Amino acid sequence: MNKKKIILVSFYTEGKPHDGGENLTIQKNIFLDKNKRGFDNVILYSPSSLIKKNKDWESVFYNKEFFASHKNYKQRKGSINNKWIKLNSMLWKPAIMMETLKNIDIPNESIIIYHDINLLKYPYYLDNFHNLKEIFFEKLKNSSIALCRDSFMKLSTDCKQELIRGYLGSHGNTLYHVWAGCIGMKKNKISIDFCKYWLDLTMIDKNRSQLTEFDNYPDFAWHSPEQATLSIAFYRWKYNLSRSKNITSFFTINHRRMLIKWNFRNKIVYYKQFCFFIFKNNIFKFFYERIFLIYFSHFL
Questions:
Q1: Beta strands 145-149 and 247-251: pairing type?
Q2: 104, 138, 214, 288: which sits with the fewest CB atoms below 10 Å from its CB?
Q3: What pLDDT, in 10s, does the model give residues 204-230?
Q4: Domains, the chain, ranges and CATH?
Q5: How many CA atoms, within 13 angstroms, populate the side-chain half-sphere of residue 225?
Q6: Integer Cα distance of 234 and 198 in angstroms
């Protein structure tokens, strides 16, 4: 009988001439060195390695029509991230998670953890690596998917209104966004179904596109493609009574920093921020948006 494993996954680009991203090979080497002894396996993907394995991956990373659609855009300056567009607006993230979940060499019920790789830009990622295994082992005891909320940031800040209104039936002003930089899944049919739903959402060009008619919506920064669709998928599952038990989320008291345990001060800060978020964004809207979530998650 195959022993369950804990697998760490990430993704790096190599820059020209290999792909349209920046050269993250130094970060890749540090990531591997810091984690190779802490997990049963570390899997690092890159565009070149995936395309070498299967030419179909070219369509995940490169889409000329999609790239062209963002040229000469007429929306607020700063609301478009061109680095994301060069890699087909992050379609690779749900795709590599699905690739890992379907890997026949990984035993069922193994824990698969994804974490972003740019640890030179975000040095505190190095501290996260020490805690990932214990955190997700605990979070996935009774769930198949565990997602991270890294701040009390409104979903409407980095998810365009077209998605929020179309899939959740609200404006997302009292919903928290979900961070796509750290994801935990247990390898089973439930997580594969969730990941497929996330992938299918992200494959729709208009969902992934950063173009929006609501670029001047209050507090909107930009549309974070795969993070926005992950947030939509999370809420559609979390507020569906038949699926809710299979998915959980947790909050990082310090932005994107993974702590195993909170001390008393952490808890006070959390409750203070929680209350401020609710009352600032209207407590009635808080309940109103969740009522619509339940309806949309079951009937639409």
A1: parallel
A2: 104
A3: 999 999 999 999 999 999 999 999 999
A4: 6-299 (3.90.550)
A5: 28
A6: 9
- Give residue 167's identity as a one-letter amino acid code: Y
Beta-bridge partner residues of 146? 184, 248
Helices 161-168 and 283-299, interaxial angle, to 10°? 60
What confidence tens digit (pLDDT) does each residue in 170-201 have?
999 999 999 999 999 999 999 999 999 999 99
Six-digit token string for 136: 């997700």
Task: Tell me how many degrees the CA angle 255-31-87 measures, rounded to the nearest 5.
Answer: 75
What is the C-alpha separation between 134 and 141, in angstroms, rounded? 11
Residue pair 242/141 in contact by the 8 Å Cβ criterion: no
Q: How long is the chain? A: 300
Distance (Å) of CA 139 to CA 43, 110, 132, 147, 206: 21, 13, 10, 9, 33
